[in-house]
Design a protein that fits this description.
The protein is mainly beta. It has three helices and 17 strands. The radius of gyration is 43 Å and the shape is rod-shaped. The N and C termini lie far apart (173 Å).
Length: 345
Amino acid sequence: LGNWQGNTVFAYPDVAVNISGPAKEVVPGEDAFYNISFENKGYDVAQSAVVRLELPKGTIYVSDSSGSVPSISGSSYTWNLGNIAVKTTGSFKVKVKIDSSLRPSDLLSFWQKIIPQAHAAEDDQKGNLVVRVNVSTIDPQSNTGNDSSQTTTTVSFPQENSNQDETYGIPVLEITAKNNVGEFVYPGDTVTFGLVLKNTGTGTAKNVVVTQTMHDGSIDSMGSAEFTVGDLLPGKSAKINFGLTLTNDLAADIYTTEAVAQGQDQNGNEIGSNEGRTQFEVKGPTSGLVVTQTLAATGVDGTSDGQVLGGKSTIMPIRKEEWMIYLLALLLVTFVLIEILKSKK
């Protein structure tokens, strides 16, 4: 070359790639768009160039604007670019969906999962998705340091209620009922009831109200009582205890109570419980006569006076229709005693 002076430049291709993602945070179920741009910065054609995109867990490929169909291998998507001329640029967009079932724990690294870490409450509701891309050619390149690129997308998760284990579970209400009546009660006595309402489902039961109705042997309703429970979380229960004083003119009969709970699920749909039933017998009006004075001291079961309702009171009153039977028996015994005394004379 004689006295020529200058720089010797070898003609190699130099393909470069860059990726950019959403400028804002995304949420599960939302679409995200990524822009992939490439360029041949070298001095020779880049032959059979390809771009390969690696999608992380929690993302689902939807479509792209490249004009060609990518080949897919697992989470890897590859586009054949063909030959890229010197100083030529190009770009296309890729649309992905953030998996609606994605959870913050899915985005933790291996070490984060096995080593407990402290996070602020708001940080626990965010995670990062890293999307990577690289470009290659079958030709040697003058620079391979710009063959890959990555971008980080922040996923924001809806704030979860720390007082419940689920978001869209199904509540199931179950109710049981009991009363304190033994054999029977009388008008004027007080009957106490105990209701236990449980949510055995996986969702919160909202605006729960318990209603107890009472009817006699003819199934005629005699009124109802309503109790507001409010929201009942999964696995939780509510206890309701109350008393009912019977009126003095209440007719002798067998009475039934039915307790049911009603509310709504998370979507506002009506839900209801089973029926919790109890029964008790009411004896008729009493005469006030006492069959035996012994019972007045100890009660029929040995308990102190007034502790137990229904067949366990300290005296045993006689109904008016039974007076004649006891009166005739008393007269018969008196007659026999008189006859015995007469015979002894």
